[in-house]
Amino acid sequence: PPLNTSTRSTTATTGSGSGSTTSQRPPLNTSTRPTTSGNQPTTTASSSTRVTATSTSHTTAATATSSSSTTPAPPYRPNVFQLLTVHPELSLFGWLLQATGWDLVLEREDTRTLTTLLAFTNDAGRHIKWDTLTRDDLMDLASHHILPHPVQLGELERFNRGEDRLVPFSGEALRVTTHPTSRMHYAINSARVADGGFLGTNGALHVLDNVLLPAALRERFATQV
Predict the structure, then answer these.
(1) Phi and psi (nearest 5°) for 192?
(2) pLDDT band, residue 147 (cuts 50/70/90)
(3) Gap between the Cα atoms of 96 and 102, Å rounded
(4) 7: left (phi over 0), alpha (psi -120 to 50) or beta
(5) Distances from the Cα of 158 to the Cα of 98, 125, 136, 177, 186, angstroms
(6) Dihedral Cα 140, 91, 119, 111, nearest 10 deg
(7) What is the mean pLDDT of the chain?
(8) Taking a C-beta distance cutoff of 8 angstroms, is the pair 3, 32 a contact?
(9) Model pLDDT, residue 140
(10) pTM to 2 decimals?
(11) Can you tell me the distance from the alpha carbon of 173 to that of 88, in angstroms, rounded to the nearest whole number?
(12) pLDDT tens for residues 10-42?
């Protein structure tokens, strides 16, 4: 609506006379107030509202973006197969898992695939006559190094005492003993536990300095590994 200048003048005079309202209500700056002409509606209030709303939404969006950007990302945890990729000395064992399809099973983020890998080193694997092994032989060898449940390093003691049996997917039980020269103090069959305790999202990884051969394969090698 048109500005009522007579009312504004009275208010200003009253404020000036009493000295009590000047600080509470500053004079209106008419030079910056937009005017209307003809039948055009006044848009000052609605424009101000839109500017305020837009400013508020931008501020809210910026605050949300700032909050999300400062939220730390969860730590990366590889699965048990991915643990092999950070150990180049276990690449031969990783190849065995890929050749037999075990890698696809071990990469599943599923509680039904909680396992333990007993991975032999590349140096240990060089003693194997790989060119004489069939696909079934490779599957038996891989299955002999995978336990169907997670076993942490400290849990090997109960197998050493005979309180439980360490049986891999091959079905042939493994023997756990203490070994005075083993870095981790344990041996599994003829292989010393050289390193271990690596935990992934779906299992554990221990490193052996020898290959665990199932009984059928031991008979086929001239030199027992």
Answers:
(1) -80, 145
(2) very high
(3) 8
(4) alpha
(5) 31, 28, 32, 10, 12
(6) -80
(7) 75
(8) no
(9) 96
(10) 0.65
(11) 28
(12) 443 334 444 444 344 334 344 443 333 444 334
Residues in the chain: 225
Please give the full DSSP string across the chain, using - where no structure is assigned: ----HHHHHHHHHHHHHHSSSTTTSPPP-GGGSPP--TTPPP-HHHHHHHHHHHHHHHHHHHHHHHHHHHSPPPPP---TTGGGGG-GGGHHHHHHHHHTTHHHHHT---GGG-EEEEEEPHHHHTTS-GGG--HHHHHHHHHTTEESS---GGGHHHHHTTSS-B--TTSPPBPEEE-TT-TTSEEETTEEEEEEEEEETTEEEEEESS----HHHHTT-SS--
CB 117 within 8 A of CB 205: yes
pLDDT in tens, 197-213: 899 889 999 999 999 99
* Percentage of the residues of the chain whose pLDDT score is greater than 90: 42
Q: Residue 24 has what pLDDT? A: 41
Look at residue 159 in the predicted model and tell me its pLDDT: 93
